[in-house]
Specification:
By secondary structure, the chain is of the alpha/beta class. 38% of the residues lie in helices and 17% in strands. The chain folds into 2 domains: 205 residues, Lambda Exonuclease, Chain A (Alpha-Beta Complex); 43 residues. It starts with 10 loop residues before the first strand and ends in a 6-residue tail after the last helix. Bound molecules: iron/sulfur cluster. The site of iron/sulfur cluster has 9 residues, from helix 1 and helix 6.
Length: 278
């Protein structure tokens, strides 16, 4: 008798997650969880301040375009003539085979005077380029946007870039003094543009295949990355909460569960704050 195959839903692959297998500390368990949670985590991997900075960076570059006063850091990307309205992931998506949808929403798509496109993503971090441990993931993310733009006939993508806003380290008293404002302080972020080469078709197809393989596993891999303690901590928290949830609840037990869940949430948050990164 033929072995029963697990039912596999269509995989929705976010551009940001395409490059996870390229991380030096890649963990299949993490990849499985990411692909199956569809972004609905009870926590965020990065503190929200980074999203705020990226969003404000985008507003400033948009303003520069509107005013015809392009930021000099963008000069290396060619003669940019238009700042296109970026698509949302609901429209910026394509089928990859019958079993997968690739989707995403880039931070910026610029048009050049020759009609070609530049796709960019804003990153608030030190601009270490390929020495950044997250660089392979960023490269795959931009390559996925290129794949989407060309599949959806937005145009030919001539360049891909990371636009870093890098915290400026103040070294003189004058620099410190210049950051005082009437109501608070302002922190200086320096803009650096790092051009990124796209992945080859073979590299893209390889990453699609890894995502398919991990998504199609019948169960989440039990073993995490050797030495990574985060899963052990989360398992301990779940051990504390789940028995009470399964046992059903009197009113007092429900109060206790709420307390334990709040404790768990607070401990997970405290744990995550041990690893600040941009
Ligand atoms: S072992 Fe670490 S990297 Fe792997 S799933 Fe757990 S927390 Fe994520």
């Amino acid at each position: 008798m033929a072995k029963k195959q697990p039912v596999i839903d269509k995989l929705v692959l976010p551009a940001k997650k395409l490059g996870l297998p390229l991380m030096p500390d890649y963990c299949e368990r993490c990849h499985y969880i990411v692909l199956h949670m569809h972004g609905q985590f009870p926590f965020a991997p990065f503190p929200s301040i980074f999203s705020v900075i990226d969003s404000n960076t985008k507003k400033i570059f948009d303003w520069c375009f509107r005013e015809g006063d392009l930021h000099s850091a963008l000069a290396c990307l060619g003669n940019l003539t238009e700042n296109l309205v970026v698509p949302t992931y609901q429209t910026f998506q394509v089928d990859v085979g019958d079993d997968m949808v690739l989707r995403g929403s880039p931070d910026a798509i610029f048009k050049r005077d020759d009609g070609s496109l530049v796709i960019a993503d804003y990153k608030c971090a030190q601009a270490r380029g390929e020495y950044d441990p997250l660089f392979p993931v960023y490269r795959a993310q931009l390559s996925a946007y290129k794949y989407l733009a060309e599949a959806l006939e937005w145009g030919t993508v001539a360049k891909m870039a990371l636009i870093y806003t890098e915290p400026f380290v103040m070294q003189t008293a004058a620099q410190v003094a210049a950051c005082k404002t009437k109501d608070g302080i302002k922190l200086d972020l320096r803009v650096k543009v790092v051009e990124v080469e796209p992945l080859t078709d073979d590299e893209m197809n390889g990453l699609f295949d890894v995502a398919r393989k991990i998504y199609g596993l019948p169960v989440c891999p039990l073993q995490g990355r050797p030495g990574c303690r985060s899963c052990v901590q989360v398992d301990n928290l779940l051990d504390m909460v789940l028995p009470q949830i399964r046992a059903g609840a009197s009113e007092s037990l429900r109060d206790s569960i709420r307390y334990d869940v709040a404790m768990a949430a607070s401990r997970i948050g405290a744990y995550a704050r041990l690893f600040p990164s941009g």
